[in-house]
Amino acid sequence: MGKNPWRRKRRRDKGPHSGRFKQNNTQQKKRLLTEEDEGQFEKICRLKKDVWGRAREEDVNPTPGRLRPLPAGPTELEKLKLESSDNGNIDVGENIPDHRSFSVPLLMTLMNDFSDRHAQESPTCLKPVFVMPKDGERARGFVFQETVKCGKCGYRLGPVKLYEESERLPGKTRGPKPAKKNVQFAVALTKIGIGITAAKTLMSGMDAHAPSLSAMHHLNTAVCDSLEGILQKSLAENRGKYRHAMELRGKLVEKGKPLAGTGAGDGCYNNPSFYGVSQRATQAALPVIETGTQDQMMIGFGFANKLCKNEVTE
Ligand SMILES: [Zn+2]
């Protein structure tokens, strides 16, 4: 190894900061930053995820605080939940940590079946601990199929339907029969002025398990279709009754030919009426009743809708 001519010995004992001991030497203090100085730089800190998300601008400032975010703190609802579980001190264990709605007779049958079979299948386990595990659950909208398990020996029974089923809706031939509760809900929804999204919000507010939006939509369409069928059938039936009554009164009623009669119709709209000669509406309904008999049965129903092309008139 020859001597490198370019290498110079570094002298530490020269210059203003020479390593030599100086008597009474005190190091210069760092100047404290003023507010103005701090304003010049972005403060580097890890922000909570919710704050970080709000401050974020995709193009200008994609990482506020210059660092990735910290996990967000609990929301107000979560805080309440935490408080209540702290106070109650409930150990949910393996159980489903939530409320469920069951048909009580079916639940009792399941418990009795479980008790009998548990005694047969694992006779050594004398004091079973009933558990309803989360992994044994199958949701069907508002209702559930549940499994019961013994917490000691692990014997399981289920999933078993804990709800009543309704008849298949018209036009549906495949898949499991719908739960009665779900169909009842869909029918009730046709009678009030809220849609499935609002209904879902209501159910979520109560912490109740609700069907998915698409499931609710499918059920609603099926129910509406069948209601429409029922309505048309009932109108036809009423017209038949009216014709029969007229025939009994001695009027000439020919099969397949129209019959003159008295009736009344009254239109209603989806928006309130105003003064004027015209009525602006996107939807209008016109029920027609006969006034020839004392029953005053509904014999026709006209419906016009500007929102969709599908028009039904009976
Ligand atoms: Zn057991």
From TrEMBL:
Residues 100-309 form the Mutator-like transposase domain. Residues 1-36 are annotated as: Disordered. Residues 1-20 have a biased composition (Basic residues). It comes from Branchiostoma floridae (Florida lancelet). Pfam families: Mutator (PF20700). InterPro entries: Mutator_transp_dom. This is Mutator-like transposase domain-containing protein.
